[in-house]
Amino acid sequence: MHLTDSHAHLDMVPADDLAGVLTRAHAAGVQTILAIGIGDGPHQMQRALEIAREFSGRPESPTIFASAGIHPQEAHQVNADSLTRLSALAADPHVIAIGEIGLDYYHVENPPIAVQRAAFVAQMQVAAAARKPILIHCRTSELATPEAKEKFAAADAWEDILELIEAHWNPQARHGIPAGILHCFSGTIEQSRHALDLGFYLSFAGNLTYPKAVGLREVAMSAPADRILVETDAPFLAPIPHRGRQNEPALMVHTAQCLAGLRRVSSEEIAALTTANFQRLFPYTSNLEP
Question: What pTM does this model have?
Fold first, then answer.
């Protein structure tokens, strides 16, 4: 079985445990990981690439690729210097995507909406120049604290994301740049259809297994077979039966099994399908040496 984890924060794994995490992933059938390069801010965007270079090609370790981007929580740090750093990383062939980028209206301490929107658009422009897909983060204020709800008011992060993508990214996608991934998708069926129409892939994380995720499972069942992916978002969102513990790529087998059950296919078929989808989105990865 060849599973592909399309979104894992390997740079958040303690250094003395990283080799073990990767060995366990490989043993569980996870043979490819996209390590997300956001770190604790723009000064650490390169860490995922460093991990990819250090561990790819080792025995009993998955092949690792990297992304680079500035998370919306750090949108206030998007400036000429950080965008120059991002552009330099985007030029590396092992940095296969820009992200995660997007909007986050969940935490009251997050930057204002206008700052987040400007940071998102600026990073889409970097991705367009590098001709690389984008990895979208979107979190609404629906379940946030009352203070966050007051700050972000009636703004809908999903609707804002889709509006900005359509205005600033999709015209680029129509000129041959693959669109990208809506990571840890949590929107409605209508929003998923809009995103699919814009060329995006939907990636499902461990929250797909949670009992209350009824709407999310409906999306997972209805999405086109050639546009779905699986991820851990490690160290977050460990799937049932490991909910509440630190997540890692090896645990993605449970999410893949849940998705397989929803779509009435075998786990092996889901592994092959989602890996093929990842390779279609990132075709040049097969030509890269670890």
Answer: 0.95
